[in-house]
Design a protein that fits this description.
By secondary structure, the protein is of the alpha/beta class. It is built from 13 helices and 13 strands. The strands form two sheets. The chain has a seven-stranded mixed β-sheet with strand order 8-9-7-10-11-13-12, with helices on both faces. Strands 3-4-5-2-1-6 form a six-stranded mixed β-sheet, covered by helices on one side. The structure holds guanosine-5'-triphosphate (GTP) and magnesium ion.
Length: 443
Amino acid sequence: MPSGDVRENPAADTIAAVATPPGRGGIGVVRVSGPRVPELARAVLGSLPKPRVATLARVPGIDEGIALYFEAPRSYTGEPVLEFQGHGGPVVMHAVLSAFLDAGARLAEPGEYTRRAFLNGRLDLAQAEGVADLIDAASSEAARSALRSLEGEFSAAVNLVSQSLIELRALTEAMLDFPEEEVDSLHRDDASARLERARAALDELLARSRQGSLLREGLHVVIAGRPNVGKSSLLNRLAGAERAIVTAVPGTTRDLVREDIRIEGVPLHVVDTAGLRETADEVERIGVERAREEIRKADVVLVVAEANSPDAGAALPDGLPEGAVRIRVLNKIDLGGKPATRDKDAVWLSAKTGEGIELLRQVLLEAAGWRSTGESVYLARQRHLLALEQARSHLAAAAGQRGRWELFAEELRLAQQALAGITGEFTSEDLLGEIFARFCIGK
Ligand SMILES: Nc1nc2c(ncn2[C@@H]2O[C@H](COP(=O)(O)OP(=O)(O)OP(=O)(O)O)[C@@H](O)[C@H]2O)c(=O)[nH]1
Ligand SMILES: [Mg+2]
């Protein structure tokens, strides 16, 4: 193990927790992990079940259920693990847990089982994060991506790039010992080709990771425009339900109306706002103020106008945030004129009939950067994206150092180090604390 590695001997104590969610259920599971598991099993259940054999067991006076024993290292944590499946009521589960605590176990902290799995080398860090992401997945697409991380596909892709950098470093450093011209020019060609391949692989990895991070974070979409153009109708249409009040009276919406929707599994946080205009009405004025604030925070602004009004061709309103994608929506095409269509300037649709809504959905996905190609994406976290971007800029810097081989090798080393942080080869105690604290107890 390299120095600076935090995978030292894990804590020698034995931990216990209820692994199933609180509340009533058909079964509930208490999980115990640590070196004292055999002893605790004998104390609480009267005997230690045979490894990997479902065994009827009793916690005297409390519950009867199935016990499962996993010997180290072939267990989730890599330590001896006992799972007791009992009746899933909160009182029963609490009593079973207490029996193990009384016998000498300590209550597990959030994520402590998975943390031990990591420390014992059962999972790398990206896989451990995949565990939490799979549990938290809010859509089947997100779940599939999380599973890919958990199964190590993301780590393998990261390691592949890392490996190619290690090879290139080794070649470069070997070459430094033979500084003749000829060797140098041979190396130059080979190094260029190898570096370009690594950069391409990293770009691909980053693209897939950005896609995956969309599945996790979603996009903040704000619907804005003058009063009565059909903003609330559009929100209702996208949500597929009557969420916001719609009337023919301009100035109907005053407060923000938020609705979370999904398009192809990509979560969109859509906000309907008060129509933008100068007004003497105090309530509406506050609404307009809130609308402007919300627009400033948007990733995507849908600027709605009526298709048949002079506003349709007007300039976009001021105050749209710099980085946000602006999409002009021309509504009410059912009143005559245009068919549902999209061109480079706008999407033409009818919130009333639903015509053109599908086009808008596609435009939204494109604005989000979603490519529905069916290729696998990685449910990357912000931490992963940062590391990948860091690695990428070091490789770009390396490309500018060809010929100055010491500097070239140093950039490769930095890129490789950034990648190593993803799988947790070099991680600080603080980072681990931060990652595992967000897990649930019992996982
Ligand atoms: N014909 C037609 N009418 C529509 C369409 N969309 C909305 N409307 C009507 O336009 C009026 C205003 O709709 P809303 O959705 O309340 O408009 P809004 O932009 O939210 O209005 P404010 O909240 O007042 O800013 C209502 O009478 C809707 O029925 C459409 O596509 N076609
Ligand atoms: Mg409205």
